[in-house]
Every structure is written in structure tokens, then in C-alpha cells.
């Protein structure tokens, strides 16, 4: 592995509150000056002008069960739908599960390499408690929140988060202030609305197609049944019985096996 050299002046190091001197960070700052899309257009705006931090502690009620949503793709899918949760209560919940959100909020994981993209919910989440591993924002009125969501999901932004501004090793994360310093192109809200109107039908079509995707286990069962003539109803019965010896002929009508 080659050695990378990066000359950094003390003036450049001082642009970061923590005096970072790592190559990946300063390479991005010096080459793109926080500009996500490296646009030459001078009409740029920082995410700090668009996203307003919005953290509110969840108010637990006595003896009420709630849905705890940690970071991780086993709890949220790539479309932002809740697919699993931890059942928690006021008396029994991890300290990291602490925030309430509304459908006005956008969430984005603070972890490097997060598989779940930025999230915005349309379903009721009033009984959900979210991890402090999420950054939680409200979108400025001058911006279409769906448009901002698409920006936060772009490969360009995730590349910067995962390869340039993260800190630490192992389970690494990036700071909210670094995210908010990133710059994007500044366009009118009418243009944002127009872009969203073109994307939404495609998004709806993708979700519809995903609903028709068969589970892998179902496909495998169909193929095995077709090729081996297996009687799965019989097999399910046999699974509940104990056998010292079992052959394929016990659950197939294919006499050649």
C-alpha cells in the first residue's frame, strides 16, 4: 500500500474545531470546498441554511409499550418503512432510544456506511422512539422537503460522508456540524417542486414492483417442488414428528429417487 502525503498548513487545520489533520478530510475541503456536486455555479447554499436540528425527547407514559427504532437495516428498509422494532417501556428501554419525531422530520444516520438512507415517514410514528444515532431535522419553508430528502440520498452525498468527513475507526461516525457545512446548488422552490413531481411517479412504480417480488424461500420451494415432486404438505407434517431414519421417498411421489 502506497503512502499518501498531504501538505496542510496550520491555517487549513484551524478551519476545523477539532484541528483535524487527516488526509481524506483536507483533500475534500481543499479540492471541493464543501461543495457536494463540485458545481461551478456560485449560487450555492449550505445544508445548515436548509436543515434545522429538531430534537425532542420522547415522553413515556406509565405502563405504555412503545416501538423502539435503533439504527440498522433490520429495523428500517431502504424505503424508510419500519419493518421491525424493539418493544420498550418507560421502565425498560436503552438510554440511546430517546427521541420522538413527526412526519415533518427528516432523519439521517450518523454512522459511516449506514445502509439505510435518509428517512421521512408518511405513516403515524407517534408511538415510535428513535435512537440518538440519527440526526433529526426540519426543512426550511423555502425548500421542498421531498426534494431535500432526495438530495440526502444521493450517491454523491453518501460518498462524501463515508469517505471524507467521517471520524474515527471501527464503528465510525461523522459530526452533524460537518454535514451541515456541505453545500448544494441553490434553486427556486418552483424548480424543486417540478423535479419532485417527475420523480414521484417513478418512486411509486418502483414500490409497486417491489411488492410483487417473491421471497427467495418461496422461489426455492417452487423449484424443488417442480424438480423433485415434493409434497410440502406432507413434509410439514413430518417436521413435527421424530424419525431415526428418513428417506426422500417418504415425502415424494417420484419413484426414481
Protein traits:
257 residues; elongated; single chain; alpha+beta; 8 helices; three-stranded antiparallel β-sheet
What would you note in describing this structure?
This protein has 8 helices and 10 strands. By secondary structure, it is of the alpha+beta class. Strands 3-6-8-4-5 form a 5-stranded mixed β-sheet, with no helix packed on it. The protein has a 3-stranded antiparallel β-sheet with strand order 2-9-7, with helices on one face.
Q: Mean of residue pLDDT?
A: 82
Helix content: 25-40%
The order of strands across the largest sheet is 3-6-8-4-5
Radius of gyration: 25 Å
Largest sheet data: 5 strands, mixed
Poorly predicted spans: none
Shape: elongated
User: Helical region count?
Assistant: 8
How do the helices and strands follow one another from N- to C-terminus? Answer: HHEEEEEEEEEHHHEHHH
What oligomeric assembly is this protein in? single chain
Q: Report the count of strand segments.
A: 10
Strand content: 5-15%
Distance between the termini: 55 Å
- Helix/strand-derived category reads alpha+beta
Overview in brief:
The protein is 32% helix and 14% strand. The protein is α+β, with helices and mostly antiparallel strands.
Describe the protein's topology.
Layout: H1 10-13, H2 23-32, E1 44-46, E2 51-53, E3 56-57, E4 66-69, E5 86-88, E6 97-100, E7 105-109, E8 128-131, E9 134-139, H3 145-152, H4 155-163, H5 176-181, E10 183-185, H6 189-211, H7 216-228, H8 232-239
Parallel strand pairs: 4-8
Antiparallel strand pairs: 1-10, 2-9, 3-6, 4-5, 6-8, 7-9
Amino acid at each position: 500500500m502506497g503512502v499518501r502525503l498531504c501538505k496542510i498548513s496550520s491555517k487549513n487545520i484551524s478551519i476545523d474545531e477539532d484541528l483535524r489533520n487527516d488526509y481524506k478530510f483536507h483533500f475534500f475541503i481543499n479540492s471541493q470546498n464543501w461543495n457536494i456536486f463540485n458545481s461551478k455555479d456560485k449560487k450555492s447554499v449550505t445544508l445548515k441554511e436548509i436543515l434545522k436540528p429538531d430534537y425532542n425527547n420522547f415522553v413515556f407514559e406509565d405502563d405504555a409499550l412503545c416501538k423502539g427504532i435503533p439504527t440498522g437495516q433490520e429495523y428500517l428498509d431502504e424505503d424508510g418503512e419500519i419493518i421491525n422494532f424493539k418493544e420498550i417501556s418507560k421502565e425498560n428501554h436503552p438510554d440511546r432510544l430517546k427521541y420522538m419525531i413527526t412526519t415533518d422530520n427528516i432523519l439521517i444516520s450518523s454512522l459511516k456506511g449506514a445502509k439505510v438512507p435518509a428517512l421521512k415517514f408518511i405513516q403515524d410514528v407517534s408511538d415510535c422512539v428513535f435512537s440518538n444515532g440519527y440526526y433529526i431535522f426540519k426543512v426550511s419553508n423555502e425548500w421542498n422537503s421531498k426534494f431535500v430528502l432526495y438530495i440526502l440520498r444521493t450517491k454523491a452525498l453518501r460518498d462524501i460522508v463515508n469517505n471524507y468527513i467521517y471520524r474515527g475507526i471501527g464503528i465510525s461516525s461523522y459530526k452533524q456540524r460537518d454535514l451541515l457545512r456541505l453545500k448544494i446548488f441553490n434553486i427556486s422552490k418552483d424548480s424543486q417542486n417540478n423535479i419532485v413531481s417527475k420523480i414521484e411517479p417513478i418512486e411509486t412504480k418502483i414500490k409497486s414492483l417491489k411488492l410483487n417480488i417473491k421471497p427467495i424461500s418461496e422461489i426455492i420451494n417452487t423449484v424443488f417442488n417442480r424438480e423433485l415432486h415434493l409434497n410440502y404438505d406432507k413434509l410439514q407434517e413430518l417436521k413435527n414428528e421424530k424419525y431415526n431414519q428418513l428417506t426422500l421417498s417418504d415425502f415424494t411421489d417420484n419413484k426414481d429417487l
